[in-house]
Design a protein that fits this description.
Blueprint: H1 15-26, H2 31-51, H3 64-67, H4 72-85, H5 90-109, H6 136-148, H7 154-177, H8 181-185, E1 192-193, E2 198-203, E3 207-212, H9 215-227, H10 251-267, H11 277-292, H12 295-302, H13 307-326
Antiparallel strand pairs: 1-2, 2-3
Helix pairs in contact: 1-2, 4-5, 6-10, 7-9, 7-11, 11-12, 11-13, 12-13
């Protein structure tokens, strides 16, 4: 069971599992989700082939009749194995269990199996970590760094002067709209309306939506478009944000920018460990909730399908308010 080489992405899925993956595509699950589900199921089926004597050697040969013989304890054995042998944590275990349960629900609904053994599995509780968000004073210092180069070394200033308007517009767009990293990188000139203060964005599930932004972001975007973008626009790219090579800026490049500027904030005395693109989104959600006190508005702005996903930002705001209250001194 220690031969991890058998658990490869080239292992073929059984026909019914492939039907399930095709179903995910039909209901608009992203390619990334389809790939992730395929990977998880390959690992599960290969485990069964290695461990159950009545199973074939290869997942492709697994039949629905054999699936009927799997018990919930076999699934628990698999989860125990990945926990020990692959050092999977609670979140990974919960994800694997969820994928298997989703497959069984599909097979039962399609009358491919007579019962769903996963209903006997106990839920795996995952302690939800509070997402990190920039504090107001951190945002103020970040804008100073972006605009004036505060805290930058001579080497950093060289590139800062060349891309300062782009970087400022990127960070303001992140913090002021709550766009996902991929959504920001996929913004186009033709879907950016400065006169209306909005973007047309294609969100998860191929949902087209309009995302509004403030006059301050309009000003930053206009400054970038009028006074900097043409410096490195080498072709007729429709991308709003370009790399220094004149191509659409990549998600990795934006992540590197965030890492760079968070490190600079750290030299200014701020705790920015672990901040990423998603933390920019969390910052927007926290600011919007503080201003509106309306979770429904925040949910809609973030494009969340489930309101439970949005409620976590209320806890973030509570934590920030607690820290602010602790700063009040009476002597």
């Amino acid at each position: 069971m220690n031969d991890n080489n058998r658990f490869t992405s080239t292992t073929t899925l059984p026909h019914f599992a492939q039907d399930f993956i095709n179903h995910l595509a039909v209901i608009n699950k992203s390619r990334t989700t389809q790939y992730a589900y395929s990977h998880e199921l390959r690992l599960f089926f290969q485990f069964l082939c290695n461990c159950l004597s009545f199973f074939p050697s290869f997942p492709v040969d697994i039949s629905l009749l054999l699936m009927e013989k799997i018990g919930h304890r076999d699934i628990e054995a698999y989860l125990s194995w990945v926990s020990i042998e692959r050092n999977n944590g609670v979140r990974a275990l919960a994800r694997k269990q969820a994928v298997i349960k989703s497959l069984y629900r599909y097979l039962l609904r399609e009358d491919m199996i007579a019962k769903d053994v996963t209903i006997k599995l106990d839920p795996i509780k995952v302690n939800q970590k509070l997402p990190k968000a920039l504090e107001p004073n951190q945002i103020a210092d970040l804008t100073d760094v972006l605009q004036d180069g505060t805290g930058l070394s001579k080497g950093q200033l060289k590139y800062h002067i060349y891309t300062e308007k782009r970087n400022y517009a990127i960070f303001l767009t992140f913090i002021g709209t709550g766009l996902r990293l991929s959504e920001l990188c996929n913004l186009n000139l033709t879907t950016t309306y400065l006169n209306k203060g909005c973007f047309e964005v294609l969100r998860k599930g191929n949902k087209e939506t309009v995302v509004y932004f403030s006059p301050e972001i309009t000003e930053a975007l206009n400054d970038y478009l009028q006074n900097e973008r043409q410096r490195y626009a080498q072709d007729k790219s429709e991308a709003l944000f370009l790399s220094m090579q004149g191509k659409r800026i990549s998600t990795r490049a934006v992540q590197n920018l965030i890492t760079k500027y968070m490190a600079i904030l750290k030299t200014l005395g701020h705790n920015t460990d672990g901040f990423s693109a998603h933390k920019m989104r969390s910052t927007f959600a926290t600011l919007l909730l503080r201003e509106t006190d309306n979770l429904a508005i925040v949910q809609d702005a973030l494009g969340h399908a489930d309101p439970r996903t949005t409620r976590i930002y209320a806890k973030v705001l509570d934590e920030q308010l607690k820290r602010s209250a602790a700063l009040i001194k009476f002597k």
